[in-house]
Amino acid sequence: MKQPASPEVMIAQTKKWIVDVVVGCNFCPFAAREVKRDSILFEVLENAPKALVLADLRKILQQLDNNPDIETAFLILPQNFNSFSVYLRLVDAAEVLLRKEGYEGIYQVASFHPGYLFAGSSPSDPANYTNRSPYPMLHLLREASVSRVVDAHPNPHAIPETNTAFARQKGLVYMAALREACMEVK
């Protein structure tokens, strides 16, 4: 049986995925700036049930509140959320937490998962790779920052369609290999 990666390796794999896939494919035209600024917080939470993930999410929100130099955060969840449907319930719970804790409009949750499947799409649709990450993860973004970059972008509504077209043009084999190469970091 394959030994699970250490948290440091999981973070390195996630960083490579951000650089090679998210930035490299221009899926998020705003990510390169934060990579260059080194303003991204990464945390790994292993074998955590939903309640512990939500408690950790609260801590990360407080870190973001207390440190404006951290632009965005990734909570990497290598176990317990491998089922995409179970993961989606976690995303829903995270969004409820933001509302209950008074963070709605301040932060937002973006979702990435190795088995990401857009509603109505086929599992073999390469477009799913725009959100297929090395591990299940919750991505916290500052709403004010998102608004600023969206307002500055010439056509922010075209981003999802552009990403889908790019992934489909590259094809399933290419997109799967690109993400898989990120797992080779040791």
Could you tell me how far the N terminus lies from the C terminus, measured between alpha carbons in angstroms?
17 Å
Shape: globular
Major beta sheet, specifics?
4 strands, mixed
Task: Please state the CA-atom Rg, rounded to the nearest Å.
Answer: 16 Å
Low-confidence stretches: none
Strand residues, percent: 5-15%
Classify the helix fraction into a percent range.
40-55%
Element-by-element helix/strand order = HHEHEHEEHHH
Q: How many extended strands?
A: 4
What number of domains?
A: 1
Judged by helices, strands and strand pairing, the structural class is: alpha+beta
Number of helices: 7
Tell me the strand order in the biggest sheet. Answer: 1-2-4-3
Query: Mean pLDDT across all residues, rounded?
Result: 94
Protein name: DUF1415 domain-containing protein
InterPro entries: DUF1415
Organism: Cnuella takakiae
What does this structure look like?
With 186 residues, the protein is an alpha+beta fold. The protein has one domain. It is built from seven helices and four strands; from the N terminus they run ααβαβαββααα. A four-stranded mixed β-sheet has the order 1-2-4-3, with helices on both faces. Strand 1 (40-44), helix 3 and strand 2 (72-76) form a beta-alpha-beta unit. Helix 3 crosses helix 4. It is globular, with a radius of gyration of 16 Å.
What is this structure's SSE topology?
Blueprint: H1 7-23, H2 31-37, E1 40-44, H3 50-66, E2 72-76, H4 84-100, E3 107-112, E4 137-142, H5 143-152, H6 159-170, H7 172-182
InterPro entries: DUF1415
Protein name: DUF1415 domain-containing protein
Pfam family, one: DUF1415
